[in-house]
Write a structure and sequence with these properties.
By secondary structure, the protein is mostly helical. The protein folds into three domains: 43 residues, no CATH class; 117 residues, no CATH class; 66 residues, no CATH class. Helices cover 52% and strands 12% of the residues. It has eight helices and six strands. Strands 1-2-3 form a three-stranded antiparallel β-sheet, with no helix packed on it. Strands 4-5-6 form a three-stranded antiparallel β-sheet, with no helix packed on it. The protein is globular, with a radius of gyration of 22 Å. The two termini are 33 Å apart. The mean pLDDT is 86.
Length: 253
Amino acid sequence: MFAGALLSTAIELLQMAIPGRDPSLRDIIANTVGSALGALLAYRPRAWLTPTARHASWLANGTALVIFAVIAATAVFLEPAQPGELIKVSRAEHDAIVRYQSQGDVIALDQPAYYVQDIFSDGGSAGASGATLTHRWSGWCLRVEQMERCAIGPTLGRGWAALMYPAALPHSWADVLIDMAWTAALFFPLGFWTTRRTGALSLVIAIVLLGGVPIIVGLVPTSLAEWMSAGASIGLGYAAAEAVRRHLAPSNA
């Protein structure tokens, strides 16, 4: 932990002399905590790689609570900073871009831009000023002339957008892929610490987290791609745990 704190401090101090970089005490704290967690995981690897059935249940339940907290935080950080704030719509060729200042932006986190592809027709003359945006329980609906697209807004998989630089990524495919990767990373530990005895319970927990919690906290309903990503990740986590147990079984004997 001390080594991690020292390395992070040195890096942040160097950023005082590197153009375009800004040192941050938050980075030092986050990196130090990460070093401590990594050291704890490496100190007792069998406690989380091959836990007892009871400990595996605790770890799975703890993972579910962490996923719930991340989904709730996504809803808080990616909601408009002011309830009555005007959502801005701009045009990029045939696509529309929906932007607003989020709660996360207020505390110096990043914020996403929601791209609505091919809503402006080739021969259409409507600009962004002709677009109308309405809010429904399933997110925003954007209407341009005779075309309407709904379910615009943050899903549970868009939580990454508060921590990265969305504007630097090609929106045509990266948004969906990173949404799926973020969802998979959230649910992989749930599958890893699921046992045969707790499989049904983990399935119910996953369905609630994917289907119920986002609607309750105000996110756009989970997309089909995110459902598939979470399911595949849980299955992969379970298979990985079984492989690890078989690999370490001779040592346990």
